[in-house]
Amino acid sequence: MLDVQFGQASDFGKVRTNNEDFCGSFVPASRQQARSHGFLFVVADGVGGMDLGEIASATAVHVLTDGFAKAQPGSLLASLMPRLIERANTAVHDLALTPEHHGQKMATTVVACALRYDQAVVSHVGDSRCYLVRNGLARQITQDHTLVNEQRKMGLISADEIAASDSRHVLIRSVGTEMFVSPDTNSLTIQPGDVFVLCTDGLHDEMKEAEIAAIASQRKDAVEIARELVARGVEIDGGDNTTALVIRIRTVEQVGMYRGRPYRLPA
């Protein structure tokens, strides 16, 4: 059966007086629910410069975790995850139109990782990231929805120039800005010993993949690793809220797939 250990940490940083990052999770209450629903982990970063980033990020995470818990048992994660992010987008967008918040803009990034059997589905909008750390190496699963990343893909700017660009935080996609949003979704097979790191830009802007991998590969509790990642990010700069959610895969349940549906492999 799929078994995971996880931990999270967040820090205001050295400059901000409030924390617009938010994270949450859904943990199954039984073996049956682990197979029918799985696990869900979410990190969101309220967009700075807007009025209610902390409300946007909290709303998005609550919609995702609540929707995941109430999903039809056995729902295909690859189709469920983008639907839930689209639902979160509607919730944040509509919240800004209520009389209480009329005239105030709000938006957030979201990165979510769902786990079931031996599969992971990662869905995201914005520049909060998911890394997979395996055998001491970190691989970025998500691609930032930023102006500079689009320019990089078109060959207009190099990867080295991104860090120095004044436009590196300009988002081209976020949750709540428009009525509709298109999340990117990736599926992958997981192995015992894999570690996922979900984080906001306050962390990944400051740390190289090699340093993230070195910290995440330690034989420490996931909470300790999350705290160490965040502390290191704040130590390097601390100009932004900094959040990390660490998920360590301890065991998996291997399955086969037939017409998009999992079935248990014979022993």
In brief, what are we looking at here?
This protein is an alpha+beta fold and 267 residues long.
Low-confidence stretches: none
Write out the strand line-up for the largest beta sheet, numbering strands in chain order: 1-10-9-6-7
User: What do the pLDDT scores average to?
Assistant: 92
**Sheet of most strands:** 5 strands, antiparallel
Kindly state the number of beta strands: 12
Tell me what the structure shows.
By secondary structure, the chain is α+β, with helices and mostly antiparallel strands. The chain has helices spanning 31-36, 53-69, 77-95, 147-153, 159-162, 201-204, 209-216, 222-236; strands at residues 3-11, 21-26, 39-46, 108-116, 119-125, 129-134, 137-140, 184-189, 195-199, 242-251, 255-258, 261-264. Helix 2 (53-69) packs antiparallel against helix 3 (77-95). The mean pLDDT is 92. The protein has a five-stranded antiparallel sheet with strand order 1-10-9-6-7. A five-stranded antiparallel sheet has the order 2-3-4-5-8. The chain has one domain (3-256): 4-Layer Sandwich (Phosphatase 2c, domain 1). The protein has eight helices and twelve strands.
